[in-house]
Write a structure and sequence with these properties.
alpha+beta, 4-stranded mixed sheet, 8 helices
């Protein structure tokens, strides 16, 4: 059994989607980041970096429990545990990991900063809004180029798509019209209909 400590954010939803896609048994433990629950000692014992998501796999490597944080690392771990959602070829695997790193290093941080300056900053900061909304659109352009040549980021559906989808799902938050990026929209509409994705976009609860 896997215990998932999470909240309804893009990073949290990556892991719930992966768990559902893999058909793994799991329990959800909500961590309300709006109330500071990520700073509780019991959560810090799992993730000292006080960020969701985190998992505890009671059947970890060598049959011993494993605590794991960082959503990208969790996706790679679950893929290794089940043999799913990473291409079997060496070439395909590294292409998938390349796009996973693109999400972790670019899409997540930049979209997140756009959300902050557009929605959460205590005052309007024109420089911050311009910088991060422009970078967000640039990243959409990179994705659009990729999706013009491939159905999914690694040609086949993989952890790279699972990681990226929940961030694109908040396109309205960063004021992006998906019609401006038709190849991204085609990919988004395809992934959005997957049953595991439909189930997990409300796990554990909307923020």
């Amino acid at each position: 059994m896997i215990d998932l400590h999470t909240w309804g954010t893009p990073n949290g939803r990556k892991v719930s989607i992966m768990l559902e896609e893999c058909g793994l048994a799991y329990r959800v433990f909500p961590v309300n980041i709006g109330k500071g629950e990520q700073f509780r000692p019991e959560f810090l014992a799992i993730n000292p970096n006080n960020r969701i998501p985190a998992i505890v796999d009671s059947d970890g490597p060598d049959g011993k429990p494993l605590k794991l944080f960082e959503s990208g690392a969790i996706l790679v771990y679950l893929s290794g545990k089940t043999g799913r959602f990473l291409p079997q070829t060496v070439r395909g695997r590294y292409i998938a990991l390349q796009w996973l790193m693109f999400q972790m290093g670019g899409v997540g941080p930049m979209f997140g900063q756009a959300h902050h300056f557009l929605r959460s900053a205590p005052e309007q900061v024109p420089y911050g809004i311009k910088r991060y909304t422009e970078e967000t659109r640039r990243l959409y352009g990179v994705l659009d180029v990729r999706f013009k040549e491939a159905a999914f980021l690694a040609d086949e559906y993989s952890i790279a798509d699972i990681a990226t989808f929940p961030w694109v799902a908040r396109h309205e938050w960063h004021k992006v019209d998906l019609n401006d990026f038709p190849a991204v929209k085609r990919w988004y509409d395809t992934v959005a209909t997957r049953p595991a994705v439909v189930r997990c976009m409300s796990v554990p609860t909307p923020p």
